[in-house]
Amino acid sequence: MSGGGTNKEPQRQKPTPHDDDCDGNTTTTNSDYGWKYALGSNYRALAIYRIVLASLLISELVLRFRFLHPFYSDDGTLPLSILLPKVDATYHVLCVHCLSGDLLFQRVLLSVQVALAVALLVGYKTRTAAFGSWLLYLSLTLRNTWLNFILDRYFHYLLFYAVFLPTGEIYAWKPSSEEEEETKKRESTLGECVLTPATVALKLQVLWIYLDAGGGKWMDPLGGWTLSAPIPALDSYARHTIGARYLYAALTPAGLRLLTPVVVYVEMLSPVLALLFSYYRRR
């Protein structure tokens, strides 16, 4: 400026918590945010969680169509005439699949489940789709508990958390133009950190799943997951699927023996280290 004036640089605003995100873009190093980033998530990660979960659910449900007649109908191994006298009133309420043993009824009900899973996949009314998927999957597993596997339990947990998580903010189908504009705004904050009781519960659930799996192998009374095991447990695991057989051929029995105890340590340590790294990265 003329007349002896001086140019002053505009003062920078002090960073706020909103300047931080879960992708590592930050302008502050306040240690109070450590646990926020360890136990929180962002919209992009939550959307991917929804898409992967729904894809796995669709695959699982489609596979069940061929087992409806032998395991879920009155013509199969567990007709309602045998099941219903052994269950209480709460079981009757929760198990929609117990309303009828007709094969057509079971097919219609499973088709509804697939439709809800597709809605969850594309992000249409995600909380409703997640709740309906969780409720009907619980009902499906109650219809014949002899078929239940540990992965069914994981579906129950993950679908239940999806009811309370904001998984449909992005990468989701929005029918109206107004909602499309809202999606564009959300996409500009993909890395914004979201911390809710549901994100905390989900992170702790994953932590527990891995600790439980690793701890169970560690305390195996037969010592199948140790280096000195007569037959390493991973050796038998690597024979069930086509991909595992290729792994078996690539590593050879000696490689699988070395890798067997490594699996235990990876399962027990990796989730703990992941949370700690997230915490200290944000301090």
How would you briefly describe this protein structure?
The chain is mostly helical and 283 residues long.
Structure description:
The chain is an all-alpha fold. 61% of the residues lie in helices and 1% in strands. Strands 1-2 form a two-stranded antiparallel sheet. The relative contact order is 0.12. Residues 1-19 and 26-31 have low confidence and may be disordered.
Question: Descriptors for this entry?
Answer:
single chain, mainly alpha, 61% helix, 1% strand, disordered N terminus
Largest sheet: 2 strands, antiparallel
Beta-strand residue fraction:
under 5%
Mean pLDDT: 84
Percent helix, as a range, is: 55-70%
Distance between the termini: 43 Å
What is the tally of beta strands? Answer: 2
Tell me the structural class. mainly alpha
- Quick one: overall form? globular
Total helix count?
A: 12
Q: What does the radius of gyration come to? A: 25 Å
Quaternary state reads single chain
SSE pattern:
HEHHHHHHHHEHHH
The largest sheet has its strands arranged as: 1-2
**Which regions have little confidence, pLDDT < 50, spanning 5+ residues?**
1-19, 26-31
Topology at a glance:
Elements (H helix, E strand, L loop, with lengths): L33 H6 L1 E2 H22 L3 H5 L7 H4 L5 H6 L8 H20 L3 H18 L6 H15 L12 H11 L5 E2 L2 H22 L14 H5 L4 H40 L2
Antiparallel strand pairs: 1-2
Helix pairs in contact: 2-6, 6-7, 7-8, 8-10, 10-12
